[in-house]
Amino acid sequence: MRVRERGDRGVVQSVVLFLGVSVLSGALAAGLAIPFAGLAGFTTEKTSETLEDLPQQFDEVPLKQKSTILAADGSVIATLAEQNRVPIKLSQVAPIMQKAIVAIEDDRFYEHGALDLKGTLRAMLRNQSNGSVQQGGSSITQQYVKMSLVEKANTPEEVAAATAETYQRKVAELRYAIAVEKEYSKTEILEKYLNLANFGDGAWGIEAASLHYFGVHASQLTLPQAALLAGLVKNPTGYDPTNNMKRAKDRRDVVIRRMLELKVISVNQANQALKTPVIDPNKVSPNKLGCANGRYPFYCEYIVSQLEENPAFGKTKTDRANYLKTAGLTIRTSLDPRIQAAAQQSINEHSKATDQAIAAITIVEPGTGLVKAMVQSRPYGNKRNQTSYNYNVEKSYAGGYGGFQNGSTMKAFTIAAAIQKGIPLNYKINSPNTLDLSGKKWSTCDGTVKAENGYAPSNSTKNVADPTMIQAAQKSTNTYFLQLSQRTGLCPIFRIASSLGLYDAQSGDPLGQYPAMTLGVGYVTPLQLSSAYAAFAARGMYCKPWVVTSVKNSAGKPMSTPGADCKQALAPEVADGVNAVLHQVMEPGGTGSKLKFGKSELAGKTGTIQQNLAVWYAGYSTKLAAAAVVADASVPYRNLIGQTLDGKKMYDASGSGTAGPLWKTAMQGALKYYPVTSFVAPSDKTVRGNVKDLPYVNGMNPDDAANKLRQAGFEVAIASGTVNSEETAGTVAYTDPRQRDGAPEGSLVTIYVSNGSKKNKPNTPTTTTPPGSPTTINPNCPPWNPKYPNCGGRGR
User: Fold this and answer.
1) Residue 85 contacts residue 205 (beta carbons within 8 Å)
2) SS3 434
3) Where is pLDDT greater, at 413 or 689?
4) Which of 92, 107, 91, 90 shows the shortest CA–CA distance to 255?
5) Is residue 107 part of a domain?
6) C-alpha separations of 406 from 161, 162, 434 in Å
């Protein structure tokens, strides 16, 4: 009998549990009444296991919050988010909104616990009598739990498990709701619910929904607005007013009538609300999430790529990308809208999106690396005349095109290598228009490299026969710089360029070392080149491009992020020398002279690659550095001549005439926000170089003089023909460089033979600085030497 009593008691308990689970499961399944037959497979043992496994606490999921990217002035660049949400306090939600959501979803919310048994039974009976689902029975707390479980899910499988119509999941959900009710007040639960809920059309949470549909904060919602939003929670897609205005109105009106039925509002209020239009489509704000919908999509994508490399945001790139979209970060960047606007104005003035050629400009700040502007001629998108390529950055970044060959802008690094070696700024090299370099060798970091047979490069501009380094830079004389790179070796050029941030923007490999290196090497981006030239402006201080200046978490606390990354890559006196040379490029006689503007000293260099596939102008003041490129970015690459730029066919393509105007307009607009500045004048040692005394050979037999010079460590050439001189005919009239100026060891000394025409005539020699030189050397001053420390005579 005792066994039977225990058995009877167990059956009764099981029946109670079955009924409880049936009611609860039916209610949680949107009010469906589950027939007893449906419990046939739900055994007492299964019920007991389910109840024993019920969770005892509920771990709240952090709200997914949008992150905001700001410009340097605090204006919004873009919003990153999986869900457009702005969490707020319940006190910031209009009371009418609170009443509307409670009225339609859980009118006894403040009277019951986790489960509204009365409401659940009512819903079950009503649904049973109607033969279909007419009314739900879940409390707001239960709904909050379900939304939270879905929010926690990271995979489709986890989402399915969080929404599965199973007894175990429904009972567990109820237990979670009990835990929530124990831990939080009703006010806190309603606040969490309103912040978590999906209100359709990409709006998550009550504040984002209010701003999206009505352009007002949640605190300003009116009755009809509140009723619409309250009605959306049940079916955010089906009742979305931007999809179906009639369905949205019908649902809104159900909420209004329910509020009237509960005496939350008056008849007059209800009638007025029912007559109100659902929304004004013109006031609906589009959810412009992501870089593509931001003000500066290319710059934004570059920023995101940088952020995704920060280990502070997650272990893997996927983790970091997810964190950026859900953590509610405030990301401030270096972009200056004023300078960006100046660069964009230049693009608008000198190019069109429909052009066959593309144009791009990057502007950076010397001494910090802050990237102030980044623009290009083709806008972001996948339609015709749009692109997702960022022509300003390396291929390793999202959308990075990977650069273009940089042409003669590479000569700046050869100039730096020459100055670093002690070669004077007035160093002359005989530079014919065409120079046969077949079989000639250049030293590299690993040995030597030899020019191929038939390699005979030419100059693209009219040049001085025996130019100084300054004159060669002014005219971009190819044959001069090829010979200069022989004297310096390619390794110093490579090391300087690499230390200033240059590498192959396509492959990420180091720059190549080959005979034509000084005329352009590999693929370089405007970002790389502007940053490298900025180092000259900053007297040798190279700074890596810096775009993210600060990151704050959702609580407003600073997070770890890389700051300025600068190093002294060149000695200041070397950079000063480069500035003196490139400054003359923009003075009369230089290829960049027409690009000069304003009172600040400017320096720059043109660049044109073979077959005119790309042309460059890179230049700077001490405050800003910029690189502009015009190129063919469509395979197969073709000569720019014949392609369109600014809607017109190009009949010429050059760094100064094609890319130069883009650079000038952008920098002219940008530098107006800065004071007038000048470069630091190079020292005497930099101007004169680390020279060695030349033997005195005037009046000697040319062959004897040549041997004497070679023994002293110089290369020698005897010029053809004769010159007027007081020396005896057939003897050495003078050398170039002159004996009094000296020359770097190993440099070329040219012997000029006298015709004796001035013998026994007064000699009034004069020495003038070659045209375009930034300095004047006193002819009576010995070559630079520590024993002549006060030797001056310099001027600008």
Assistant:
1) yes
2) strand
3) 413
4) 107
5) no
6) 56, 56, 22
For residue 130, what are the CA distances in angstroms to 34, 251, 255, 610? Answer: 14, 20, 21, 82
Provide the residue range defining the domain that includes 696. 691-754
> pTM of the entire structure?
0.79
Q: Helix or strand or coil: residue 303?
A: helix
Burial of 129 (0-12, 13-18, 19+ CB in 10 A): exposed
Average pLDDT over residues 303-330: 91
The residue count of the chain comes to 796
CA-to-CA dists, residue 196 to 169, 280, 494, 532, 700, angstroms: 20, 25, 56, 48, 96
Tokens 């700074």 belong to 543
Q: Answer yes or no: is 732 within a domain.
A: yes
Amino acid identity at 777: I
Q: How far apart are the two ends of the chain, measured CA to CA in Å?
A: 119
State how many domains the chain has: 1
**Would you report the helix, strand and coil content of the chain in percent, each value rounded to 5?**
40, 15, 45
Which tokens belong to 128?
């049973």
- Residue 733 inside a domain? The answer is yes
In a domain, 720, yes or no: yes
pLDDT tens for each residue of 602-617? 999 999 988 899 999 9
Element (H, E) at 225: helix 223-232
Give the torsion sign (CA, 609, 612, 614, 617). positive
CB distance 373 to 361 below 8 Å: yes
Distance CA 134, CA 130 (A): 8
Amino acid, res. 172: A
Question: What is the CATH number for 742?
Answer: 3.30.10.20
Closest CA to 433 of 481, 476, 469, 465: 465
The C-alpha angle 441, 444, 446, rounded to 5 degrees, equals 120
Residue 39 is predicted with a pLDDT of 39
Q: Enumerate residues 6+ apart whose C-beta is below 8 A from 16.
A: none
